[in-house]
Design a protein that fits this description.
The chain has 285 residues and is an all-alpha fold. It has helices at 3-22, 27-31, 33-40, 43-57, 61-90, 98-120, 125-148, 157-170, 178-191, 194-216, 228-231, 234-237, 243-247, 259-280. The relative contact order is 0.16.
Length: 285
């Protein structure tokens, strides 16, 4: 399978997952919600795998980083505006923003590559690279905390909510799948080989499965570690079924389709919410 085929498969799985998660008020989707969400578990890993291949073969990784961040902002702003204008009618809520997860994957890849070059040449540039990495990770968090403390008592509740949503949408603070996904993507990049990437992914899925059974056996402390509730959930463990499709990757890019895949992510979620409201009415009535 080419990168295009893998992305297309991931889009289909993602759509099925979001139809169940967003359109659950429609009886048919509610009935098969669990099965549909299990299918959707393969979407994020397949997109991550394609992202790693893209970061490996791109001629301009920095442009790729900028594109991911731009789409993260566009997705966050779109969610905030739609929620502000039509939230009561279609029941918009925080959908998550996986573009920021992917932004950090490629950002860390670029920083580590630059750090490796600087270390080989024993350049002082290595210190600046480490500093830049720390600023790029901690900076948005500190800025987000500072903006949260601004006085907004004079604003109406709707405007205050819009302002908070816009801040959340523009700063890569809240990640969809979190740092485990980011670190796995970086590690997959540096092993290079497809077989080794599949082994790393298999190991990660195995750890999640062990964590799930550990929680069931009483080790509930795992639920309190960052993103522990996500990766110890049995449904999330079904992401292991993305592995056979990764193994089928043939090293080819396939058809070059870039921006439609980017824009499909934010647009289809609001389309599902709007169609659900059209058939079932407002969730608040």
């Amino acid at each position: 399978m080419s990168i295009f085929a893998l992305k297309l498969l991931a889009c289909i799985a993602m759509t099925i997952d979001h139809v169940a998660a967003i359109g659950w008020r429609i009886p048919l989707f509610n009935t098969y919600s669990t099965q549909m969400q299990l299918i959707g578990r393969i979407a994020a890993p397949l997109f991550l795998f394609c992202l790693v291949q893209g970061a490996t073969h791109t001629h301009n990784r920095r442009k790729m980083i900028g594109r991911l961040y731009l789409m993260g902002i566009c997705t966050g702003v779109m969610d905030a505006v739609v929620n502000f204008l039509w939230g009561r009618q279609i029941g918009v809520h925080g959908y998550g923003n996986i573009f920021f997860d992917f932004f950090y994957v490629v950002l860390f890849i670029e920083l580590l590559e630059q750090l490796r070059v600087a270390a080989k040449t024993r350049s002082r540039k290595a210190l600046f690279i480490l500093l830049a990495g720390a600023v790029l990770v901690a900076g948005p968090m500190l800025l987000h905390q500072a903006l949260e403390k601004l006085p907004m008592d004079s604003l109406s509740m709707n405007v205050r909510s819009l302002t908070c949503d816009l801040v959340d949408g523009c700063l890569p603070v809240y990640l969809d799948y979190g740092w485990p996904l980011v670190f796995m993507g970086v590690l997959m990049y540096f092993v290079r080989s497809k077989n080794k990437q599949c082994l790393i992914y298999l190991g990660f899925c195995s750890l999640c499965l062990v964590g799930h059974f550990a929680v069931r056996c009483g080790f509930r402390q795992l639920l309190y570690i960052p993103y522990g509730t996500i990766y110890t959930d049995f449904r999330q463990c079904m992401m292991i079924f993305a592995l056979p499709f990764m193994a089928l990757y043939n090293g080819q890019r396939g058809r070059v389709v870039k921006w439609p895949f980017y824009w499909y992510y934010p647009l289809h979620r609001h389309a599902i919410a709007a169609v659900t409201a059209l058939f079932m009415g407002s969730p608040y009535t």
